[in-house]
Amino acid sequence: MAKDVFGIVGTTLSGTFLVECVVAEGGFGVVYRAEHVTFRAPVALKCLKIPTAITAEQHVGLLESFREEAEMLFHLSAQIPEVVRPLQADAVQLPNGILMPYIAMEWVDGTPLDSLIFTRERRGLPPLGLAESITMLTPIAHALARAHRFEATAGSTVTVVHCDLKPENVLICERGPVTAKLLDFGIAKVRALATSALGRITDVNGSRPFTPGYGAPEQWLPKTFGTTGPWTDVWGMALTLVECLIGHPPIDGDIQGMMGTALDPKRRPTPRNEGARISDDVEAVFARALAVDPRDRFTEMATFWSAIEHAAGVPPSFASELQRPASPSYEAVQVEARREAAPAALEFAFDLEVEGCDRAATEHRGATVPYSQPIAAPSSVTTTTLPIALDLPVHELPHVHRSASSAIAGAPETRRRPAALAARPHASHVRKASGSPLARPLGIIGVGVALVLLDVGLSWALKTPAAIGPLRFRWFGALAVGLGIILALASFASTGDD
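The structure assignment produced for this chain is given below.
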């Protein structure tokens, strides 16, 4: 059962929110249900746990990032009704001296998609059908397509990527004009900064800024597969749809097993491979959407969703969307990211500028490998990557609202305020352009083998051992082969760490 770790149930935050109960708790935050005392309406409060073992400068940076992400969430929800709307963001000093940032969001009555899937399985009902699942998730696909080509008030366009799509982050609404809501655009940069400040580049406890069971290959190995982008959300939506069709997560188990499935081209988690009966056309669409290499996937949500609708015989819903300017391609994003990349201390996500203010965006729920990647797109398009993170277990909750991002009232104004949206690239998530790490070890091994063969050949031809003084050529060859093997093993180990 979720605990009131902040001890705020029964209190009123900022003189406005009467905290009623705990909804869910994760490793990085707690969600409460509260009442807005002025509007007399329920709200969801997402309160963040900030590590105590950080410097004052890092602390200020976390609060500023929290505020910036709330601003981006505000702009997203203003134009995309399927994104949960923020109401207020603040930070309060608790009686025990802890500073607690929180964001208040609209309370949405509905059922998380993962709870719906789990309930059907528990009651012995068959999984959802393909057409039914597509229809249910179409509003989410459209919301993501708009976020990937988000039109800012300054006239420019940015690509805002969710990066943690899964059934838990989709809320099926019980009433209202919107039938589904998209949760958890919000706190990834804060989470990445916090875990980086604590030195958790790879947390053995599975703390990663994305949910392992839904992590795309580029999230597991950004140095191998490049930066995230709309293709990452295509992966998440495809897995979410697969889970609807089979009634359980398609990728599950321990961390290494889930990573292996995501990266193995022979073990694709498509519906047919997971036991669902579908047509060849539908299976082909999923196979492309779940390709290991992002370059082999659909690069836009509209293209993927139109393909799955056509294969399933569902009326198309993206006719108008397909006429809009396309998002940057995978190749354009990677080239621009490599060209513009520059190191930045403690920054693991992009900065956006909306209406004259820098912005950062999004959140990854699940566990923690700080990796966010800001990327700049060609011409007037700016690409940004939004990880998502809160890891709040809510499978047993029938009505759970989850979404986050926040602004901190009174945070120091240290930002520039240009008028157009932009993204700042970072070297930590730029795909390396260097050659294979095995080239040097294999070269050394080749030299060693050549020396051994030379020794054998000269000894046979001269009828005497080939040597330089007392030293045989084959000895040098054996040393070279041994050194090459050691370097090769070191390269494999380094690739595994990435």
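Interim note for the steering committee: The chain has a mean pLDDT of 75. Residues 55-83+108-429 form a domain with the Transferase(Phosphotransferase); domain 1 fold (CATH 1.10.510.10).
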